[in-house]
Amino acid sequence: MLTAAKSYLRFIKMSVIKNMKAAIEYRKSFVIQTVFMFINNFFFLIFWNIVFDVSGDNIKGITMNDILYLWSIPTMSYGIAFFFFGGAQKLGDYIINGGIDILLLQPKNVIINALLSSSDFSAFGDLLYGFLIGLFAVQFDMTKFLLLIILSCVSALFFICTNVILRVISVWVGDTSNVEHIYTYTMLISFCTYPENIYSGIIKFLMYTVVPAGYIAFIPIKIISAFDFSLLLILIPVAIIYILLTVLICQKALKKYESTNNVLLRD
Fold this sequence. Notes:
Elements: H1 2-25, H2 27-55, E1 58-59, E2 62-63, H3 64-70, H4 73-84, H5 91-97, H6 101-104, H7 110-115, H8 123-137, H9 142-168, H10 170-173, H11 177-192, H12 201-207, H13 213-226, H14 232-256
């Protein structure tokens, strides 16, 4: 078991290096996508800064520092998820178009192989943005900043798991790329980047069940800002449940999957 784990770690390392080399090879595209994503995120910060300038430094208990947290952990975790595991965004296409056939012939796990097959270059802009904003959110406290990075990695698992689940159900219901896009950008990211105390009732319930915004943003922020490590007893088990649920659905999807008999080569 230990040998298998080491083998997968080497495989992940090699795949990440390969994707990063691909990013460097197309450096102009990589830089442009990174810069534009960074600027896009920065405009939201300008918006919130204007709101606080007009309304005062505290709006119903919400401060600008709370907004910095909200725009650091979710964006960094999104960047980690899809810069390093960008194949998650193509998983549905692999299933619909038969691109997964070649992965079935590989000795490594099909889903892990698919996740590492490519990188979303623009996600590096999110990663860089979240990293820099996170420094200001923790006011350059390196202990808190290290904790922020670790929790962002945990939050990234939720992005990956929800994305994979919504993609692999293509086996049963057909192309779900539009559904996944709406779920991720209209619901998940939107919920994550607004203060928790503006939500109540059914919406707040959804954020801790169907849409895991609470586990991506709100609980990690509470852990860092208040050093409330008891919340890890909620965050870690839920993350494990999401991973196990994703593995279960992927296993059932692969059993249901029917090859397109396409003959493909992988670089």
